[in-house]
Amino acid sequence: MMEEKLRKLFDLVAEVADINHSISLLRWDQLVTMPPGGEEERGLMLGTLSKLAHEKFTSDAMGRLLEELKEESTDSDLGDEAKWLIQVTARDFEKMVRIPPAYVSDKAKVIARSQQAWLEARSKSDYSLFRPFLEEVLDLCIRYIDYFPPGEHPYDLLLDTYEPKMKTSLVRKIFKELLPHHKALIQRIGEKGRFNNDFLHYPYSEKNMWEFSSKIACDFGLDLKRGRLDPSVHSFCQRIGIDDVRITSRRVPGKPFSFLFSTMHETGVALYEQGVGHFWRRTALEGGPSMGILESQSNIWENLVGRSFSFWEFYYPQLQTIFSSQLENVNLRSFLRGINEVNRSNIRLEADEITYNLHILVRLDLETAMIEGSLSAKDLPVAWNEKIENYLGIEPKGDAEGVLQDIHWSSGLFGIFPSYTLGRLISSQLWEKFENVYPDIHEDMRQGDFSALLSWLRIKIHQFGRKYNSQELVKHITGSEMKVEPYIHYLNNKYGEIYGL
């Protein structure tokens, strides 16, 4: 009887997963290949499919089945996989059943229009074109919060979407610990002056940079038989399914290395998605447990590996051969200093490892203020510029490099930004553990060999899918709670050496 009910649960969840995978494919297409005139029809398609998936997952039949399985599983000899399947599916059901299907449909339609409006507004650097759509998205966020009992802070409910069981108060505490360290390091570095990194802005063949970036992704372990790589306005990773994981890299005029590092970044997420155990295919455990964990993988491959001296000892001669006219007079140390330079920038995606978290703090402050009702969409550009000036001491030249630079708000992703900083903390903590158990990693990287690192990540993290939340997973691997010390230690050591502090 139990086996029959489990099979029924698998079948029901698999149907929902198939619909959600179709939604993911439509969203990928919308941002990569869809003609701009297709936004209305795309919104209707996404609205219908999103509503259908929600109705199927939150049906009375699903609720009864989960209740029966939860009761019977306590007295059975079920394996761990089956118990986790029941537990995670029930957790998702209990959350989603509070949301009306009409809301899900409305949100999909609003987001489809909002994303296209953002693309136009960003291209014209005109916030006024996007403002009415942001007001709709913000209203959706408030409606979502109202479906749940009040918590410590209304932002907690949005944060929980990306970081289960995380609280706004804990995120604030983490930033409070980080901020003085970041400011002190930025000041000390600022006293050392700038490096000559003109070579980063020379004209580079886009085709050759794309081919080199694709090679790096494959060397890391990306399986292009189960995924693909494309250009887009904003880089992202989209899981259509475990065996169809798609990433994009962003083109930035005058900054050709954005191609390379955004590819490394998104490859980190894709490696996780491709590494989830196939047992979880088409179940609620497919995918990452939190955005912080996914971002930890991005940061490992982009920064801890991709901006390290050991990595470039192997790859820099290859890069010099491809781009001889640009790099023939640039030695390895100068190149490393250039790609790791600390320089206050208005663009989050172009920020260095130290100032990056200040960009996240700007967004956290603004998001919580909008959710609290103390900041309106009308006043957002002025508030943005004031925050950037306060934290980074610079001023955006226009809306495109200011309030319109990120796709997230047009996509309704309120609550996601703190995950980017949490991911950096987690990555340093995981890296510290990995170096302790495998001290030969830097010698491996000097040979272009990442197999031991990827294998460790597969075994310790990727295979579990959504089994653990980020805090549980970090403690399971490292033996301690998430903490800031390994991250601060990493930044001080790395930039101390680069700048001779």
Report on this structure.
The protein has 2 domains: 2-150; 168-499, Neurolysin, domain 3. It is 63% helix and 4% strand. The chain contains 21 helices and 3 strands. Strands 1-3-2 form a 3-stranded mixed beta sheet, sandwiched between helices. Helix 10 (257-275) crosses helix 11 (291-305).
Fill in the keyword field for this structure.
21 helices, Neurolysin, domain 3, 501 residues, mainly alpha
- Please state the average pLDDT score: 93
The CA-CA distance between the termini, in Å, is 67 Å
- What pattern of helices and strands is seen along the backbone? HHHHHHHHHEEEHHHHHHHHHHHH
What name does the CATH topology of the largest domain carry?
Answer: Neurolysin, domain 3
**Largest β sheet strand count, sense and barrel closure:** 3 strands, mixed
Supply the number of structural domains. 2
- The CATH architecture name of the largest domain reads Orthogonal Bundle
Widest sheet: strand ordering: 1-3-2
Task: Compute the CA-based radius of gyration.
Answer: 23 Å
Q: Strand content of the residues, in percent?
A: under 5%
Estimated helix fraction: 55-70%
Short description:
By secondary structure, this protein is mostly helical. Helices cover 63% and strands 4% of the residues. β2 and β3 (244-250) form a beta hairpin.
What order do the helices and strands come in, and which of them pair?
Blueprint: H1 2-32, H2 39-57, H3 60-73, H4 80-96, H5 101-124, H6 131-146, H7 155-162, H8 168-190, H9 206-220, E1 227-232, E2 237-241, E3 244-250, H10 257-275, H11 291-305, H12 309-322, H13 324-327, H14 332-339, H15 356-372, H16 380-392, H17 418-437, H18 441-446, H19 451-460, H20 470-478, H21 485-499
Parallel strand pairs: 1-3
Antiparallel strand pairs: 2-3
Helix pairs in contact: 1-2, 1-3, 2-5, 3-4, 5-6, 8-21, 9-10, 10-11, 11-17, 15-16, 17-21
